[in-house]
Amino acid sequence: MRVVAGYGCVSGVSLRDCSCLKVRIRDGEGDVPMADSPEKVWAGIDIGKTHHWVCVIDSGGNVLLSTKAANRETDLTAIIAAVKAFAARVIWAVDIIGAPSALVLALLTQAQQPVRYASGRVVSTMSTAFAGEGKTDAKDAYVIAETARIRRDLTAVDQTTEVVRNLGILTARRADLIADRVRMINRLRDLMNSVFPALETEFDYSSCKGALVLLTGYSSPHQLRRIGEKRLSAWLHHRHVRGYAAVAATAIAAAATQQITLPGQDIAAEVIAEISASILALDQRVKALDTQIADMFASHEQGPIIESMPGFGPILAATLLVAAGDLRAFPTAGHLAAAAGLVPVPNDSGRRSGNLHKPRRYSRQLRHVFYLSAQTAMMREGANRDYYLKKRARGRTHIQAVISLARRRIDVLWALLRDGRTYSITPPNVTRAA
Asked: Residue 23 is part of a domain; what is its CATH number?
């Protein structure tokens, strides 16, 4: 592979020619002789599905390299080696953290290169500071590199462990299965309402397994009347349905209220039975996936500490690890709370001061995790519920009280991770100096 430097004008961004630059790639290794090698350079990568655009700048904003690289290991390895030859330290920045950037991030991790994350919103805002309205991959890569050079507060891409990466895949798959389950249940209820509304209103099909088992064999009024309550009860009991007698009695009572045969009833019954069987099979898959997530989460070093906090089960705690990475990487609990959007930001101007509002840039997934854990914890007796009730007594709404509790719990969780101990109701003994 041969890497060439691209020069000229890239949509309003002037790329200066560097006469000392000579890039030669031999067997995946970069040989870049330069007259004056800078101590630090910044490399911005505009992530794409098939190709990435890489732009390297020095401390003065001069472009040293601007080129396109295929999303293949050999090409990316060559680019990384060439960029590393420019300076002793390279700060990399990407605009996407996800499937398209998985390969390049893994190669940068292997090469022990620091990576920063410049979100699409940040890049779009920074682009307006440069001349020209055009948008190209080369310009985006340049803006990403300039953003990393100018700003010192960009989020560092955590070099996550294999456990966290696996948890990310499993939790994403679980979310997909839950979404499929919700869609199938909604379709099931719609079909039931069109041919057998009396039975549709009798059960909560999202939580009643016995009702789904019933529909796999009997989902129309004439089928239920023909089998009768006694035989239906025995049929359900044979399939290990909890409360089979009550389910059978409810179904027969609903069948007695509808004597008419609606159009499409027989075909609908077949589809209802098929959907019900699919939901039951999906439930088994989700159950097995939950066990797999719980076992993998238990192997993480921070797992026992996070799960010891009230309100955190293995699934929610695994989602927290995926959303935040290494929680100990946050300097303070306030930084973690700010990342979750639980810290108000000021909106002052002139003589107007003390105005706070909800932040707009934060991790929605992280905020959702902390909110759910706080809401779960406050439902049980203890310090969490006492704090929630205290906020409600001061006039806070339910949502405001839960958010306040979530912010308080972040302090506790961060302290536990800092000290490396699990949660306990009684505070630890503190030895004071004489």
From this structure: 3.30.420.10
In tens, the pLDDT along 405-418 reads: 999 999 999 999 88
Report whether 54 contacts 65 (CB < 8 A).
yes
The DSSP element (H or E) to which 375 belongs, if any, is helix 364-377
Give me the amino acid identity at 232: L
CA-nearest of 259, 182, 243, 238 to 211 is 243
- The DSSP output letter for 329 is G
Contact between residue 288 and residue 174 where contact means Cβ atoms under 8 Å apart:
no
Q: Which helix (H) or strand (E) holds 226?
A: helix 221-238
Which runs of E-coded beta strand occur in 187-267?
Answer: none
Q: Distance of CA 369 to CAs 134, 196, 294, 309, 404, Å? A: 39, 39, 16, 13, 14
- Which residues on adjacent β-strands are paired with residue 91? 42
Q: What is the mean predicted confidence (pLDDT) over 217-231?
A: 91
Block residue for tokens 């719609």 = 190
pTM of this prediction? Answer: 0.74
Q: How far apart are CA 160 and CA 194, in angstroms?
A: 50
**The residue to which tokens 């972040």 are assigned:** 410
Tens digits of residue pLDDT in 54-100:
999 998 889 999 999 999 999 999 999 999 999 989 999 999 887 88
Q: Helix 102-110 crosses helix 73-84 at what angle (to 10 degrees)?
A: 50
CB atoms within 10 A of CB 40: 13
Say if strands 345-346 and 13-15 run parallel, antiparallel, or are unpaired.
unpaired
Q: How many domains does the chain fold into? A: 3
Domain CATH number, residue 246: 1.10.287
Q: 28 and 138: one domain? A: yes
Q: Are residues 124 and 31 in the same domain?
A: yes
Take residue 86 and report the two structure tokens written for it.
């420019």
Structural domain range at position 319: 303-346+360-419
Burial class (CB in 10 A: 0-12, 13-18, 19+), 224: buried
Query: Distance of alpha carbon 262 from its chain centroid, rounded?
Result: 45
